[in-house]
């Protein structure tokens, strides 16, 4: 029954989630390890996937396939994270052109979804509001959220105003937090950007008071089980804290994060959650939390009706 649970796929990066056959067809040659030796090794692998992009049409194709694959795994709603600056800008000519391609592609995919515009904590520090202004300009035209990704040890403080711009535009603010850094860093992210959800957030489990706060405030954690294992955030699958977080009442979604780089998919992540011991009722609660915490419109949320 697991793949049939109506669920939302919320933590999914476009360039880490190229369909394997498409990656090969576009000339991608890298093989991806089961475990990455370091964060730097992972980031290098992530950046290298952009080498396969030759034409703006390639970008369109990747988005369409990603949303379609997510829907085939049971997602009634998919949020695609994309960082428009850097290589995409060189490919399409401008951030505006990138947004047009990506938002068009989500609409063309034939399954409901939206775009999360990502800030890179290091790369975008020199111009910290730029991505938020871009995201706000595309609110209502496909963009549903502002993400913050990259090295969590880089300061969050410069992005406080960007988060306010996003909140004011009605976008969800969904930073990566509690993956590389622990509870103190999560607390700072909560203060500085007032997030609606946290991508990962799993290291909150190190601090029971913080776990209670996340549960009380209903802040959803967009967990990636395979991702956490591959990057050594947890020593092995059996040690993953998802069951503890769910049983403490924290809303959790499960997600691929990067389907290509971690060799996973949405349905597989639900299988892993089951392997961690989540009951049918707990899996259903995870699926429900993913839809509740998403930016999906009322027409999609109909699936929550008993
Ligand atoms: Zn991520």
CATH-defined topology: TIM Barrel
Total count of strands = 8
For the biggest β-sheet, the strand order reads: 1-2-3-4-5-6-7-8
Assigned CATH superfamily: Metal-dependent hydrolases
Decide which structural class fits the backbone: alpha/beta
Helix percentage: 40-55%
Question: How would you state the average pLDDT, rounded?
Answer: 95
**pLDDT below 50 for ≥5 consecutive residues: which ranges?**
none
Radius of gyration: 18 Å
Ligand roster: zinc ion
Order of helical and strand elements: EHHHEHHEHEHEHEHEHHEHHHH
Approximately how much beta-strand content do the residues carry? 5-15%
Amino- and carboxy-terminal Cα gap: 17 Å
CATH class descriptor: Alpha Beta
Return the domain count: 1
Tally of individual helices: 15
How would you characterize the largest beta sheet? 8 strands, parallel
């Amino acid at each position: 029954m697991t793949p049939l649970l109506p669920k939302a796929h919320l933590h999914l990066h476009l360039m880490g989630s190229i369909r394997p056959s498409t990656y090969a067809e576009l000339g991608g040659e890298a093989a991806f390890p089961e475990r990455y030796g370091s964060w730097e090794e992972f980031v290098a692998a992530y950046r290298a996937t952009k080498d396969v992009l030759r034409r703006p049409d390639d970008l369109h194709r990747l988005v369409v396939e990603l949303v379609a694959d997510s829907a085939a795994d049971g997602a009634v709603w998919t949020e695609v994270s994309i960082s428009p600056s850097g290589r995409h800008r060189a490919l399409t000519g401008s951030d505006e052109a990138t947004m047009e391609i990506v938002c068009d592609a989500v609409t063309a995919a034939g399954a409901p979804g939206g775009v999360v515009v990502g800030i890179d904590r290091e790369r975008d520090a020199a111009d910290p509001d730029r991505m938020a202004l871009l995201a706000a300009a595309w609110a209502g035209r496909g963009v549903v959220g502002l993400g913050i990704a990259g090295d969590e040890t880089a300061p969050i403080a410069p992005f406080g105003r960007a988060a306010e711009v996003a909140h004011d535009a009605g976008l969800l603010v969904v930073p990566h937090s509690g993956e590389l850094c622990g509870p103190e860093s999560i607390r700072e992210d909560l203060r500085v950007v007032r997030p609606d959800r946290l991508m990962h957030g799993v290291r909150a489990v190190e601090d029971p008071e913080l776990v209670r706060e996340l549960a009380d405030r209903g802040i959803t954690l967009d967990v990636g089980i395979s991702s956490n294992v591959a990057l050594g955030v947890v020593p092995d699958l059996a040690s993953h804290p998802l069951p503890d977080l769910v049983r403490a009442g924290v809303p959790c979604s499960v997600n691929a994060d990067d389907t290509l780089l971690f060799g996973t998919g949405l349905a597989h992540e639900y299988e892993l959650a089951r392997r961690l011991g989540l009951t049918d009722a707990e899996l259903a609660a995870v699926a429900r939390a993913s839809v509740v915490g998403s930016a999906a419109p009322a027409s999609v949320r109909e699936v929550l009706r008993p």
